[in-house]
Amino acid sequence: MDKRKELKEQYKHMKPDMGLFIIKSNLTNKCYIEGTQDLKGTINSTKFKLGLGTHMNKELQNEWKALGETSFIVEILENLKYQEDESKPDYSEELIILKMIWEERLVKEGMEMYNNK
User: Fold this and answer.
1) Residue 21 · residue 77 · CB < 8 Å
2) Residue 3 lies in a domain
3) Which single residue of 37, 55, 89, 113 could bond 61 by disulfide (Cβ 3.0 to 4.6 Å)?
4) Which domain CATH number covers 74?
């Protein structure tokens, strides 16, 4: 197999990192959490939407526009591991549960969530 075909085959079998990421305001005590099966892609997409002014969470969007990107921290909260036998194609339920656990934990620590208004 030539190198190009080999690289294509490797790419097809690559799995993106999945889990939760958080966007925290440096100026307020608020945050936004999202779970995804493609952390890098979703983080890039979310930052792009916030920059354009088209993010679905209007409260976060308004503060992002008013305060600027430098007023926020975007970081990965937790990675979710794939099952070793690779039998599970969809991890949506696990991501929802993980998000609920983290939201509860952060609220107990005094953090507020951006409302989706």
Assistant:
1) yes
2) no
3) 55
4) 3.40.1440.10
